[in-house]
Amino acid sequence: MKAAWYEKHGPAGEVILVGELDTPEAGEGEVRVRLSASGVNPSDSKARLGSRPVKWPFIVPHSDGAGVIDQVGPGVDTSRVGERVWAFNGQWERPLGTAAEYIALPADTAIPLPDSVSFTEGACLGIPAMTAHRALLGDGPVAGMTVLVTGAAGAVGNYGVQLAKWAGAATVIGTVSSDEKAEAGRGAGADHVVNYRTENAADRIMDITDGKGVDRIVEVDLGENMPVTVGVIKNNGTVAAYASMRVPQPVFPHYDLMRNNVNVRLVFVYTMPDEAKRSACGDIVRACEEGRLSHSVGPKFSLDDVAAAHEVIESGDFIGNVVVEID
Fold first, then answer.
1. 308 closest CA partner among 40, 120, 127
2. What is the C-alpha to C-alpha distance for residues 255 and 228, in angstroms, rounded to an integer?
3. pLDDT of 325 above 90
């Protein structure tokens, strides 16, 4: 099969190779998927740069993808052959991810893909949509609540806004850093969009909520945004953070948060509890079937250009999900 891989950590253009590898076979409890698209996420680039060790002779990167099951292993119902699926956790604790024509992976990580969703769109789900679901709903329903989604134009943030509306949030507020991203946030369904580069975010959010603040925060940068969090979170509110890139060692205002009984949840999609994964997958599929989720496809690349896809991810200069189209 054709695939992209790397054998050591380093810059994308120096270490990513493209060529032929042996096609995997579905093992016990596994399915093999003939991939049509592979989603590229920041964690894929970080892994290549050294956040995870290279424990095998080579690694085919990427965790998310979409395609058609063409083979099942022992213990898997043969009726799944021919099923359209989206896949998650592809390259997690295994060497072969989705930057290839085929992947073999546990059957419960290949989720039925509604006919209304293309393979390119399906490759956007995985990490972004599941992270958004866990951050938003990991502490219970949001129906009737006010939800703040920071980084509302990002891959996770976009799904966070949409899922909040789908789940019945009364008001969804998104923060962004530009007018272009503000349009993306509104397009996802945010009731209000705050440009934190041109406005005082905490003051604006308190104005929007008539001084009441927000019940739940889907947080893209825990450390940098902590001052805003302290200023806008309600008593007994929750902030669920899936990243803290600009301030990786946050200063934690313990007593400010404790006085309001604020719950702080950290989200890492790869190691979420199995029940949380099942809940996320079920809700994501239902929202797609109901026509309530759109998919923000951003820059697209071919399998020959996986290195360029990683470089775009690292630049941060894009809107939407970066996708490698395989056929």
1. 40
2. 15
3. yes
Main-chain phi, psi angles of 124, to 5 degrees:
-85, -15
Cα 48 vs. chain centroid, distance in angstroms? 18
Q: Rounded to whole angstroms, how far apart are CA atoms 197 and 63?
A: 33
Check the CA dihedral 128-157-302-309 and report its sign: negative
Convert the pLDDT of each residue in 105-131 to its tens digit: 999 999 999 999 999 999 999 999 999
Specify whether 32 is located in the same domain as 139. no
pTM: 0.97
Query: What Cα–Cα distance (Å) separates residue 29 from each residue in 49, 66, 72, 75, 93?
Result: 31, 19, 8, 5, 16
Task: Provide the domain count of the chain.
Answer: 2
Alpha-carbon distances, residue 70 vs 24, 84, 102 (angstroms): 12, 10, 9
**Model confidence pLDDT, tens digit, residues 223-255:** 999 999 999 999 999 999 999 999 999 999 999
Sign of the CA dihedral with 217 first, then 220, 226, and 232 last: negative
- What's 34's domain CATH number? 3.90.180.10
Residues 6+ apart with CB under 8 A from 214: 146, 147, 148, 173, 205, 232, 233, 234, 237
pLDDT at 327 over 90: no
DSSP 8-state code for residue 24: P
The residues near 82 (Cβ < 8 Å, ≥ 6 apart) are: 68, 69, 70
> Could you list the residue range(s) of the whole structural domain that residue 151 is in?
128-270
Rounded CA Rg of the chain? 20
Q: How many CB atoms lie within 10 A of CB 135?
A: 29
List the alpha helices (DSSP H) in the chain.
Answer: 12-15, 42-46, 119-122, 126-137, 155-166, 179-188, 201-208, 222-232, 254-258, 274-289, 306-315
Do 149 and 242 share a domain, yes or no? yes
